[in-house]
Write a structure and sequence with these properties.
The chain is an all-alpha fold and 188 residues long.
Length: 188
């Protein structure tokens, strides 16, 4: 029965799957590195990690732009009518709200980080070779005001990722509706 329901569920394109999995891995990795590096004492290793973190954030921002453009120009497969009919209204709302909020935070987290770096007076030089323009003017007061928001938004994104994964587990283990098969690597 599970194989039949997986076959009847529309799958995402290979490009959409690549964007999903590359960004998923990058975001989880960057969140973990962010947690680790903030606990390090001031050192060359910490400075290196901060630079790497900024470069990865810029890369995630660029990939998020490409992913959003792809999504706007390539409609995702609709949920099967049978699946939608089985979902209570609050789950349908949560499905759309979590996706919308995750997309918003794909942009907000790195942009807030960029603003904080700029306000702190530290220009981002992508990969050590491409200086990016300052997002805001240097201002210690502004930097202090922005600083916690990068963390808050990163934790909010992490919470949404956990919620997203829990929903996938629910659909895979409890509902057994083949929803996960839509985004697994493989044939589109």
């Amino acid at each position: 029965m599970q194989a039949n329901s997986q076959q009847s569920v529309g799958r995402y394109s290979g490009t959409a799957k690549a964007f999903h999995w590359v960004l998923a891995i990058a975001i989880v990795t960057l969140f973990c590195v962010g947690l680790y590096m903030t606990g390090l004492p001031f050192s060359p290793a910490r400075l290196k990690l901060y630079n790497w973190h900024k470069w990865a954030g810029v890369a995630i921002l660029a990939l998020s732009v490409l992913r959003l453009l792809w999504r706007l120009t390539h409609r995702p497969p609709a949920l099967p009518a049978k699946m939608v009919a089985a979902m209570p209204a609050w789950q349908q709302f949560a499905h759309h709200a979590v996706h919308f909020l995750m997309y918003a935070l794909f942009f907000a987290v790195p942009l807030i980080g960029w603003a904080y770096s700029s306000a702190s007076g530290f220009q981002i030089v992508f990969l050590g070779v491409l200086p990016l323009p300052d997002f805001v003017a240097a201002s210690p007061e502004l930097a202090e005001a922005i600083k916690p928001w990068h963390g808050y938004s990163a934790y909010a994104l992490a919470a949404l990722v956990v919620l997203h994964v829990l929903a996938v587990v629910k659909h895979s283990v409890i509902d057994r509706d083949g929803l996960l098969g839509r985004m697994l690597p493989g044939r589109s």
